[in-house]
Target: Transcriptional regulator, TetR family
Amino acid sequence: MKPQRAELVAETAITLLAERGMRGLTHRAVDEAAGLPPGSTSNLARTRSALLELTLARLAELEADAFAPVLDVAGLTMPDMLAEMTARALWTQLTTGRRQTIARYELAMEATRRPELRKIYDEAGSRFRDPAVTILSAAGSTDPVRHGRQLVAFSEGMMFDAVIGAGAEPTLDDLRLGVRDLLRGMLAG
Amino acid sequence: MKPQRAELVAETAITLLAERGMRGLTHRAVDEAAGLPPGSTSNLARTRSALLELTLARLAELEADAFAPVLDVAGLTMPDMLAEMTARALWTQLTTGRRQTIARYELAMEATRRPELRKIYDEAGSRFRDPAVTILSAAGSTDPVRHGRQLVAFSEGMMFDAVIGAGAEPTLDDLRLGVRDLLRGMLAG
DNA sequence: GTAGTTTAACTACGGCCGTAGTAATATCCA
DNA sequence: TGGATATTACTACGGCCGTAGTTAAACTAC
Model:
């Protein structure tokens, strides 16, 4: 089969989501933005739900790639090293990956109301959360589950504020120091 | 004048945003959900932009009320007290205020692309951020601006994960401990 | 009480959307 | 090679959306 087409559509959908939001993502808009003949997207993803699923699935891949280096347990038992890797991954999401970060938030909101999206989103999320617990446990956390959630939440909040919110753009150093602060607080408990 | 009408419309719009997302918020949908005669919303907020502005302005009021107790500097120089107040405010947003929290995220995304919304959102945001800096400074932070941003980001992330994301619902105690962890780490620097 | 002004009610229009049916084309395997 | 099958292209339809114009009602101030 030809995944070429599906990937192009998903990629274009991500861009549209980021630039125009949920109301800007339509079958026809994807066709036009991707330079495909009219009806192509409608044909590949027959319903709107199918289009969203396709897009979120692609997005999950991209995010997994971006955070892959952080999820390798080896060597991350040292807090400073963990902070460094986390900060760099976040930095990537704020710069190179800004587009997909915005699109992911759009789809996260939609997942609130669409079970088929929630399934994909949750599954993708656990691929970050589970390793985080393991790593924090190895780093000496006394409550790795809660701390894992906190680390993920802190990361999410930093990204959200930087990309969506009113917060000023943090520097890479801000991120590094921030994660380090949190880790210090958690591991000193 | 009669602000009754405007408030009803804004309140209904918030509910629609939370329940059906940006694509579910239309002039006609507000009319129907609010039990108003057709055309009423279209008449009060003549353009879509006006409707969004009206809604976000109302939302900013609600959020300001919810966080008012935390923003009182008095007595909050003690980290545990600050953590307690913050955790309680967050808890409110996750339970009673869940609807407006979701709606706020919808509008935050939209503010990315609409300058008129960004203006309102940023202004409302600074009403949290500025006091946070002051309070952290009083609590002994060596870098209150960065720490203020981190505290807000952490709060935002905990809310986002709980309401939108894949994270399990935190308990009030989780929130308390989480904020305490972060404060400990920041103030130990 | 009545003239003038604001607010509400209703209606209309052009446009885009989701969806699906069907025809054309390419691809694959025996 | 040639027939079966999957993919792509094109078109159509009903429906809802944003917007605005126009009329009717309510209110205000003199």
Q: What stands out?
A: The mean pLDDT of chain A is 93. The two ends of chain A are 54 Å apart (CA to CA). Chain A has one domain: 3-187.
